[in-house]
Amino acid sequence: MKPTGAVEVINLQKIYGAGDEAVHALESCSCEIPAGQFVALVGPSGCGKSTLLNMMAGFDRPTQGEIRLDGEILVSPSIQTRPNSDRVVVFQNGALFPWKTVIENIAYGPTVQRKLKPLEALDQAHAILKNVGGMERIANSFPGQISSGMQRRVEILRALINQPKILLLDEPFRAMDTVSKSGMHQHLLDIHQRFQTSVFLITHDLGEAILLADTVFVMTTRPGTIKLKIDVELPRPRNKEMTLTEEFTTLQKQAIAAVHEEARKAFERGEKELA
Q1: Domains of the chain with CATH codes
Q2: Chain mean pLDDT for the chain
Q3: What predicted TM-score, i.e. pTM, was given to this entire model?
């Protein structure tokens, strides 16, 4: 079966407002996410990373250009595909239902979006928890009874159970401490290895981007476009020890130099942050 989840971003432009108040968020922005690949997007605050992710998700449309998913137009100035289970977003802030147990949270999506019967959805939720080590034991816990890191794991599984073509991650680990974040990195690496779903991650953590991704795109300051493509040829499966290698350090230095150059430009212009 041909893998799915290939995304093409083609000459994207996004302008908010008009006249003297117009803000050019994106300009001539193009990149690709091959099916099954893990791609990370980094850049200074306000460069348009979240704007691009929101258009992939179907929350917004461009002023010019288009985004294609597996060859079909997803969004363009005249077309905006609604949010769908083929593109699932995990945001910075948790979105679990506090009144539902872990298993009920995971089973919710299939009943609503894929129209499965409740018992069938619960069976699939149990199966995906069993497929990921250490998760079955919290099936009947409520979100408030488990750690923030475990809540993030549940959110990712809740997204993956809908069998999306692409998983969109909007800085999901930003608020975590170093130890919890390290655990989540390994968890996400394991999940990607297991499910082979296309992943698009936006992050400010350059080490995180290099550890997780096959490709890292660096954006310019506003109006955002792709400044640099970094191919991360570290072998998979990956682990935290790889961050100590010379190859990792070289890639990280390359990303740091590119991002800091753009951040300096934004600072000198006195730009305000914008998604």
Answers
A1: 7-207+224-269 (3.40.50.300)
A2: 90
A3: 0.91
